[in-house]
Amino acid sequence: MSRLPEHIAVIMDGNGRWAKKQGKMRVFGHQNGVGAVRAVSEACAELGVKYLTLYAFSTENWNRSQMEVDALMKLLSRTIAEETSTLHKNNIRLNVIGDVQRLPKYNYDALMKAIEETKNNDRMTLTLCLSYSGRWEIAQAARMIAEKVKRGELQPEHIDERCFLNFLQTNDMPDPELLIRTSGEERISNFLLWQLAYSEFYFTDKLWPDFGKDDLYDAIINYQSRERRFGKTTEQLNDK
Ligand code: FPP
């Protein structure tokens, strides 16, 4: 418990394959994925993880069939309606990052309401990445910086890493120490490209709907066995 990651990020993958294995539609996998979202959120809050960030819908996911996109949007709206009071009761703050203006208005409005309702909660921040991609986020940050420079509010020589991260949507959270990806895929898939620079990656073959609390504990225990050097040598770390 003394070496718990403060921030865990998750690429929830494998819903479609989970459904296919049972001869069902992809949407059935997403519906069952919500159970895993609940289990992992609960486990993180119980342990004392302060930030949990879930890749729920990528910018690229807009290219899926209209039927699947519609089903995911409806599922999102139902989940917000059903789960917000539980989040609130458990002192969890809901947060969203991504190009949320692209979401259907009913989802956007429901999300904003849930975010407002839970904004003062401080046990854990649950961030849903919706219509999100890391390159999009970095390009947005560059655009905001350029606008500030154009208005004369920022000098180019003052743009460094510390300055840049203020323009990212994650500017109020620490970088994730641990990234988990399910379903056997070992890619970053345009997730938190800036923020994952020094994160430990944990991959598991489990498909997302099958991922439960024990799987999360396995990932954390695995993370705790690693030495994080941040570019230093083991000897330098031990000299501290
Ligand atoms: C990846 O599986 C999963 C998604 C693209 C959507 C994730 C959504 C959920 C877990 C449920 C909804 C979440 C919330 C927060 C309401 P995939 O479809 O890429 O699976 P595949 O790789 O097997 O095809």
Description:
This protein has a six-stranded parallel beta sheet with strand order 3-4-2-1-5-6, sandwiched between helices. It contains eight helices and six strands, in the order βααβαβαβααββαα. Helix 2 packs parallel to helix 3 and helix 3 runs parallel beside helix 4. It is an alpha/beta fold. Helix 4 links the parallel strand 3 and strand 4. Helix content is 44%, strand content 15%. It binds farnesyl diphosphate.
Mind sketching the topology for me?
Blueprint: E1 7-11, H1 15-21, H2 26-47, E2 51-58, H3 66-89, E3 92-97, H4 105-117, E4 124-132, H5 134-150, H6 161-165, E5 178-181, E6 200-203, H7 213-224, H8 234-239
Helix pairs in contact: 1-2, 2-3, 3-4
This protein binds farnesyl diphosphate (FPP).
Helicity level:
40-55%
Radius of gyration, Cα only, in angstroms?
A: 19 Å
Structural class: alpha/beta
Strand content: 15-25%
Keywords:
240 residues, alpha/beta, 44% helix, 8 helices, single chain, binds farnesyl diphosphate, six-stranded parallel β-sheet
Task: Summarize the structure in short.
The chain is an alpha/beta fold and 240 residues long.
